[in-house]
Write a structure and sequence with these properties.
Radius of gyration: 18 Å
Shape: elongated
Distance between the termini: 57 Å
Largest sheet: none
Structural class: mainly alpha
Order of helices and strands: HHHH
Strand content: under 5%
Oligomer: single chain
Length: 85
Amino acid sequence: MTWRDLAIETIRHVHAELPKEATLQQRKDALFAAYPFGQREFTPYKVWNQEKRKYLAQFGPPPGPLFNPQSPLDRAKAKSERRNA
């Protein structure tokens, strides 16, 4: 069984135990408590977070942008404006 298989299996089990009307925060808390790999580092933790993100996307908006949506020019302008303020 791979790290991903175990992560998916654990998330399925957590989902089955939660009530249908569980909030996004309750789901996050349940997943946090169910982490199956010991220390939260390296490949197992990375795989867990990927699968957790996929699962939670069904129940609410993503946690935020994965990248800065501004162009380099917009960032430079904003930096200049902050300096001159």
